[in-house]
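Would you kindly consider the sequence and fold I have copied below?
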Amino acid sequence: MTRAVVILFLALTLSGCVGRMPVLQKRSYDFKSTALFRQPCDEDVPLGEYEIALNRCNSTRLLRMIDTFLTIQEADRTQGIPGDTLVDVRQKGFTIYIDEDKKIRRPNTRVLHGNEALAAVGMAVSPPPLQKPEEIRAYADFMAQHYAEEYIERDMTHAADRFCLNTRNSLDIGEDRVFTIVWREGLVFKRVIGGGPVSNPKQERALLVCPGDFLIDTLTGTVNTSTKAVSPIK
């Protein structure tokens, strides 16, 4: 009986404090960019707005990048469309190099060849049974025709907070995209945008129960496994 009274007292005390307890929130960022289609930077920036302007300078004109990417023509022999060449794609703004001499690679880009290039757009090919040298050579020559480039654009924010002792709320929000172009024999064979906008709220239970649940469960002798409703993260 004494133990129950102590537990009840603690529950009432904690439940009275939780309503006035400040929300603890932690934010982390996952930012990757090729620096293509970058937002313009403001030269004259007020001191208090420096951080906002810096984020704006680092961000990507994503809609413009998507629209431009979709203008890249894939080869379609039935329609008489040869497909864009490497030069055509470069003129549309997609390049894995920073310098004109092609010695410095752009960050967050990847080069793929052969079956890896096809796998990047979901078209991986299992090799057929190859026994004769000419069959092996023909398969190798066919795979060598495929070349791919990937461009990664990611701007994700992870926010986590606690509204009571046992509930951890988190939200992943932002953009996570991969632009992939595959050439076959020097002409665009396939171009794909992977990923997309992300909005992924989560709520997790910890070892301790919330004061409100704790009080009700103690009095009723039941275990409450429901999730408490929370306000959206601002």
Notes: The longest helix spans residues 2-18.
